Amino acid sequence: MLMRFTAAIAFLLAGTAHAQLTDTEQRIVAAVKQRSPAALELLEQSVRINSGTLNPEGVRAVGEIYRAELDALGFKTRWIAMPPAMKRAGHLVAVHEGGPGKRLLLLGHLDTVFEKGSSVPLWERRGDRVRGQGVNDMKGGDVIMLEALRALRSVGALDGANVEVMFTGDEERGGQPLKVARADMVEMGKRADYALSFEGNSKHDGVDTASIARRSSGGWVLKVQGKAAHSMGVFSAQSGYGAIYETARILNAFREQVIEPSLTFNPGLVFGGTNVSYAEDTATASAFGKSNVIARDSEVLGDLRYLSPEQGERARQKMRAIVTTGNLPGTSATISFSESYPPMPPTDAGRKLVEIYSKASQDAGLGRIEVLDPSMRGAGDVQFVAPYTVGIDGLGAQGRGSHTDDEDLEIASIERGAIRAALLIYRLAQAPAP
């Protein structure tokens, strides 16, 4: 399958090696530019609705706005509900069937990290920028996708295209189990020749970038046990070192022995004492202990990110060995692992897809695109389909402060992003059918 992708991409690169914009492509660009004020209005309409992941009504309301846009573009739309126990809004799916040709999957998400009751303004215009809830991550990217499709439709370039769209409702806090929450996306990915994801675009050293690799998102829980006893006996053969000293030994050994490029393992929460507990629903830990008592229990909650399955397995093996061997006297420890988002390793086909994207951008006078270092971006939905197709991410808007109270967006990036995306979709759709 990878050879087929590579051959198709080579064809595209050869066909555009010295090309500028064709007449049709010039009309596509003009259509995007004509819609720029309306695109901003569409963005404002969707951003003014709180759609935190745990606000399913708000998520569905944003979905209905985008659904109406897709219906008007000739897509067949449907809403995929999730099981009630998952407590998630579900996903919006849209399909456009064309003639023979490449199949494209476009990905966005409706939810934001700003839950209902957030003090962050929904929409605050600041000159050529906008601050607001999810304005950059990723309603700006959602609007870019819709405007690109609209421009293609306006010049007849969408008629023969095979495009599937999925706007997920729980990207920021994935519903559990993720195998269920992403089952439909995986099936769509298996049908696609290319997957284009519209998470925020970022600059590196002043140059716009795109992502063809994203590290996994998962975690680990370290539990350490010692002997509760009077502190006067600490370090003795009878009382041992206690759970907190053993925890410190393990974490320092991780730092010294496990680090390698593109691999991170962050201990985000550490708590220990005579008694400890952790509340998952509030992400809150509590501990009881005294300075003159040797700690009996300690726990660490950590994050684990790696670029390939092989790298992840190496890390887990090393960490398990450190946890279970060389324990300080009077202590024992266990570690468990979980994975939410699978890794998306870089591929040659992905690099060539960025070349096509970069060429389209340069032909439109918008500058080159370079591949972003995966350590500079978190996890995203495109990772679920990466094993089955050629994926690219970062086609969305440019902004600052994603996930923070100061999240904002550069308004001009909506037009730039829509032009680039429309040209990329158009050129990919022109490739010969497999």
Task: Describe the protein's architecture and organization.
This protein has helices spanning 2-15, 23-34, 36-47, 56-72, 135-154, 178-181, 183-191, 243-257, 309-324, 348-363, 412-429, and strands spanning 76-80, 91-96, 103-109, 123-126, 129-132, 162-168, 194-197, 203-204, 207-210, 217-225, 264-273, 275-279, 284-288, 297-305, 332-341, 369-371, 390-392, 399-400, 408-410. It has 434 residues and is α+β, with helices and mostly antiparallel strands. It has 2 domains: 2-214 and 344-429, Zn peptidases (Aminopeptidase); 217-341, Alpha-Beta Plaits. The longest helix has 20 residues, at 135-154. The protein is elongated, with a radius of gyration of 24 Å. This is M20 family metallopeptidase. Residues 1-19 form the signal peptide.
In short:
The chain is an alpha+beta fold and 434 residues long.
| Rg calculated over all Cα atoms | 24 Å
CATH architecture of the largest domain: 3-Layer(aba) Sandwich
CATH homology superfamily of the largest domain: Zn peptidases
Order of helices and strands: HHHHEEEEEHEHHEEEEHEEEEHEHEEEEH
Unreliable sequence segments:
14-18
CATH topology of the largest domain: Aminopeptidase
> In this structure, how is the largest beta sheet organized?
6 strands, mixed
Oligomer: single chain
**Overall strand count:** 19
Task: Provide mean pLDDT, rounded.
Answer: 93
Shape: elongated
- Assigned CATH class of the largest domain: Alpha Beta
Strands of the widest sheet, in order across it, are: 1-2-6-3-7-17
Cofactor: Zn(2+)
GO molecular function, one term: metal ion binding
Keywords: Hydrolase, Metal-binding, Signal, Zinc
Organism: Ramlibacter agri
